[in-house]
Amino acid sequence: MSLSLVHSRALLGLEARPVCVEVHLANGLPSFTLVGLADTEVKEARERVRSAIQNAGLEFPGNKRITVNLAPADLPKDSGRFDLPIALGILAASGQIDARKLGGYEFAGELSLGGDLRPVRGALAMSLAIARPAHGMQHKPPRLVLPEGSAQEAALVPDAEIYCAHHLLDVVRQFLPGQALPEATTGWSRAACSAPSDAPAYPDLADVKGQAAARRALEIAAAGGHSVLMVGSPGSGKSMLAQRFAGLLPAMTTEEALETAAVASLGGRFTLNNWAVRPTCAPHHTASAVAMVGGGSPPRPGEISLAHRGVLFLDELPEFPRAALEALREPLESGTITISRAAQRAEFPARFQLIAAMNPCPCGYLGSSLRSCRCSPELVARYQGKISGPLLDRIDLHVEVGALTADELVNAPPGESTQEIRHRVVRAREHAMTRQGSSNQALQGQAIDAQCQLDTAAAQFLNTAATRLGWSGRGIHRCLKVARTIADLAGAQTVQLTHVAEAVQYRRALKSQ
Q1: Checking CA distances to 273, which of 2, 59, 138, 224 falls within 20 to 30 Å?
Q2: Is the CB of residue 236 less than 8 Å from the CB of residue 403?
């Protein structure tokens, strides 16, 4: 047979789309042509595949005209994931392995010049795509063959049939004409899920002394899925609080863990030790808009997607480029980010919780009781004006983090532990899920009116506060959702005046001189 077909996957965003690797051997001038909208890394597979086949002791048909087509032709292909399927296609077309046995398998893996298999990016996304076939298709999903590191990652998907191989020869032996060798006698084996069984460990909030207002705001944010802006002088504990926020969130479900791991796999950041651990992404304030939302060709996830189901911590918020901050506005509302380019479009999940921190002024000591501020009113206004009103309007909770005195820092008793606060957070989230099927932050439209009904006193108080503070419609709705969360933490069935009054306190504008 001079024609063979081998199946693989190409990544486009979080999707792993099917690719058919077609290999044809013909008489003529010796050549090795690779077509099908292949990136530079894929075209370099010609040299890797040639060397790997020869160094594995197999025959490379160098006297033939070799044509490799990666179909469909309009789907971009990148990275070295197609090395293994190309090599198997050449061996099948030249009759060295049985092409019929390749049916029912999909392959991905980068080859070294000696034939060793190296891990590839996005293995978990490939496994998810195989385990969840298109709607209405009843046939058995194919088996996926991957290098060792990638196979362990892909095996986290329930019901996925994943095989691990260390070398090209380990795969070739399984598809030789006649009876294949038993699995135990080769480097080929069925990959099993080996995720850590212990509960994830997070830093303890008990390490933070004082800061009762900030701790309360973080508890409300964790219970309702709200975003937080902490304003305080340098060294007041803003970063310490933010780093402990992920521990307040409920344990991840299997579905959430798979989503988070799949995005991390696309970015090349996933390890088994991170399984079911809510991510905390803290990009430096020099990060560009593309680094924040994602991009490139083909598109890759940015920090907001890598923080999916976790925390995006932006320290020194006013120092971020304006374009990077404004790019957060839509994902904060929708929970997704769509990256559109001339030739392709990719959508990534971005349901993160934003925890931002900033100083109140350039010197950092506006309103501090420990040191006097040396900034002029114009300088303070210019500094605070770096954060646009529309972005500030989308942040639910604004809290001041005051600096502690030396006596408070040394002698203050430890606060509540993360475990104690998480217990209240989980209970409040369960109330919300039972009542409306979503977190309070996710309420939209008529659901806000239905779930956040106020009595006469509470409605009048909210009216007065919104008028005096000049709130937008979005600001009023966000205040209502925060009040609903406060009521859930208190175990109240209805939103009362005390809940609204506390929620109003968390939407005050930044102070100026």
Answers
A1: 224
A2: yes
End-to-end CA distance of the chain: 82
Cα gap 231→177, rounded to integer Å: 70
| Measured CA angle at 481 (ends 478, 485), to 5 deg | 140
Do 325 and 288 touch, CB atoms closer than 8 A?
Answer: no
Residues in CB range of 395: below 8 A, 6 or more apart: 227, 228, 229, 354, 356
| Residues of the chain above pLDDT 90, percent | 66
Chain position carrying tokens 């690797």: 21
Chain segment 436-478, per-residue pLDDT in tens? 999 999 998 899 989 988 988 999 999 999 999 888 899 999 9
Helices vs strands, H then E, count in the chain: 21, 19
Give the C-alpha separation, 166 to 148, whole Å. 6
Starting at the edge strand found earlier in the chain, the sheet holding 189-190 runs 105-107, 143-147, 162-165, 189-190
Nearest CA to 384 out of 328, 330, 319, 472 is that of 319
- Give the integer Cα–Cα distance in Å for 327 and 293: 7
CB 495 within 8 Å of CB 454: yes
Q: What 8-state DSSP symbol labels residue 81?
A: T
CA–CA gap between residue 422 and residue 419 (Å, rounded) = 5
Please determine, for residue 342, whether its predicted confidence score (pLDDT) is greater than 80: no
Give me the residues paired with residue 345 across strands: 340
Closest CA to 351 of 312, 314, 294: 312
| Domains parsed from the chain with CATH numbers | 3-190 (3.30.230.10), 205-436 (3.40.50.300)
The C-alpha atoms of residue 290 and residue 252 are separated, in whole angstroms, by 28
pTM of the entire structure?
0.88
> Which tens digits make up the pLDDT trace of 38-61?
988 899 999 999 999 999 999 999
Q: How far apart are CA 212 and CA 421, in angstroms?
A: 13
How would DSSP label each residue in 334-403? HSEEEEE-SS-EEEEE---EEEEEE-SSSSS-TT-SSS-----HHHHHHHHTTS-HHHHHT--EEEEEPP
How far apart CA 101 and CA 341 sit, in angstroms, is 39
Helix 212-224 / helix 473-490 crossing angle, nearest 10 deg:
100
Closest CA to 271 of 261, 279, 280: 261
CB 131 within 8 A of CB 169: no
Q: Cα angle at 75 between 74 and 76, to 5 degrees?
A: 115
What one-letter code names the amino acid at 145? Answer: V
Beta strands in 126-247 (DSSP E): 143-147, 162-165, 189-190, 228-232
236 touches 363 (CB < 8 A):
no
Specify the pLDDT at position 64: 92
For 278, phi then psi, to 5°, come to: -65, 125
Rounded CA-CA distance 129/497 in Å is 49
